[in-house]
Amino acid sequence: MNQADTLEKIMTRTSAAHYGSDRQGTPPRVMAVTSGKGGVGKTNIVTNLAYSLARKGKKVLVLDADLNLANVDVLLGLTPKFNLHHVLLGEKRLRDILVTAPGGFQILPASSGIMELAELSEEQKLFFLSEISALGNSIDIMLIDTAAGINNNVIYFTLAAQEKIIVLTPEPTSLTDAYAMIKVLSTLHDVKRFRILINSAHTEKEALAVFRQLTLVADRFLGSLSLDYLGFIPYDIKLPQSVRAQRLVVELSPRSTVSGKFFQLADHLIQEKPDTQMDGNIKFFWKDLFKL
User: Which of 8, 72, 151, 171 is most buried (CB neighbours < 10 A)?
Assistant: First the structure.
């Protein structure tokens, strides 16, 4: 039996068990936040955006996809009793490890220091896929905080998402690594649309200059791609202060400039109409998997 047949059987069984075979639902919107480079602020962006979306009435789930060096729970000052390692060992179901974060969104905590999770096996991917698909109709938006680098797990989770958000900062190394991530996804996996979010820019002029640099290089060497400017998150001293306090800046300083940008970004994402519509009630997470 090939991988597609195995996955289809898992999906059919999961659908019947969790929803009933005739139930139709609206699939959640799935966004992977990635960069290629560590230290660009992906986790801060994911968690503060999740809080902002939840405050606006959306049911949000954050997946910490850095499976062996998890930090979402650390950033939020949480100490989950169970994590994805227990799920992949078969000791817990995915719904058993969900943790409610400040603001009302939920997180799927990963583990830390478990080297075998650095590269999931095909069987683990399929099992994980069936588990996470079972949560599909209970959430509106799923945000995936990928690990740093361009390893198999990062590519796997990025491809599985409907929308790929590339985060970069004004630093030259960040631009280089963001381009490398786009190159891998476009040339090896035929991804043609990316959303670009600039972090830690001092002004929008600086952010747009970074975006133009990335666009020029991509146009020259990668051909026909769609790079959509999603906006920028400004540098603000309140952000590192909130990290040290293990609280989200949108909660600690809701009237700050940086918090205002997160709320604006949440509004923008809610108001726009996603161009990728997935069929069925649990198929939201697997359509692009077979590009791997």
Answer: 72
